[in-house]
Amino acid sequence: MDSMIRKLLSELPRLETNRARAATCKICASPAVLFDAVDFNKHCSARRPYEFGLSGIQVQYYRCTKCAFIFTKFLDDWTPDEVARFIYNADYVKVDPEYLGERARRTAADMARLLVGCERLRILDYGSGSGRFAKEMTERGFVSVEGYDPFSSPLRPPGPFDLVTCFEVIEHSPDPIATMRDMCEVLSVGGAIIIGQSLQPSNIDEIGGRWWYVAPRNGHVSMFAEESFVALASQVNLTYYRGVDVYPFARQNPTPVVLHAITQIGVPASVISLTAPQAPARSPGWHDVENGSDGMFRWTGDSAIRWPNAELGGGITVIKIPFISEIYDGFSQRCRIFVDTEEIPTRVQGYKLVAEVTRRDPLRADIWLQTPPPATPMELRGVPDHRSLGLAIRCARYFADNTGDY
């Protein structure tokens, strides 16, 4: 054995879960736990993420327990000069060959089709890179498209702009709220921001840092789920619209032209996370609060659990019920979510029950969780626990008290 390896191994502490590092979410300020760690040289390639070898520099990523935002603090104290020297240097094109123009040409063709009727609006391409997107849009008949990039085009044109586009940019920001606020400063009162971004896949819990988009060598320090975008929108008083690969964030009263454009792209969407009550100490249908390594939770004791008077927004409302355990394998797969008396198609995504409701107008309704009959650990495994248990659902206190928890 190499002597240095022997020394490092001998100095390792005993394995204890409380040694795992934690952080605070940069978007919603909820607890974030260690998600994964990758080598600095990992870049955006699904098949060969380490084709340039290992740097020996570990980059740790965290994931928010509430809004699912994945982030690293690795670049937080870097200066712009350091970012330019170690990431956006002459080798950057090797890890992002489409940076020079191919992606911009493809994006412009898509956006010109989606933004029909917006040809005379003022548009700012935020994080414009090589500037190709603005040129391509101009060639397609858009009369006022300008670019801004803190590295390649640092002189920002004066606002306001009707649309601010931001394609494959915000994942590079170590402070996404500050980046959104910066875009809002030049956004008109009836305007919208359009973000192009890869969101976390449904199997992110399974693949972890192997997801191709977790790529520090590309400067990818912030990775978003839909909950992250909803939380981010709330921080800057914008409304999030669910699209496909592109996602509008609109002012409260967009102009008719802007509204027409963004509704061609997506639908207003919100997310509510339904958690176990923190108080009183005893609640109907719930066992007492417990505190485990994954946070505070309560076991369900009845097969029907109600969250009264929940507010569902206009458009799409995603209902999520986060849990940390189930009384037996497959129990969660048999659970169903109802809005009042209407059963909503329900799926298990990682350790969350997920259902979606689409409504034209906002409404308040009771949300019900219907589970299989609870079972006792005694009858299942001979453990001396006679409680009837179903799902161990996270407590509200586990999350920051904002963006729609009940």
What brief labels describe this structure?
19% helix; flat; alpha+beta; 10 helices; 30% strand; Jelly Rolls; Rossmann fold; disordered C terminus; 13-stranded mixed β-sheet; 406 residues
Proportion in β-strands: 25-35%
- Unreliable sequence segments: 398-406
Largest sheet: 13 strands, mixed
Give the distance, in angstroms, between the N- and C-terminal Cα atoms: 55 Å
- Total DSSP helices: 10
The CATH architecture category of the largest domain equals 3-Layer(aba) Sandwich
Shape: flat
Task: List how many beta strands DSSP finds.
Answer: 22
- State the helical fraction: 10-25%
Radius of gyration: 24 Å
CATH class of the largest domain: Alpha Beta
User: How many domains in all?
Assistant: 2
Mean pLDDT: 91
* CATH superfamily grouping of the largest domain: Vaccinia Virus protein VP39
Stated plainly, the CATH topology of the largest domain is called Rossmann fold
Structural class by SSE content: alpha+beta
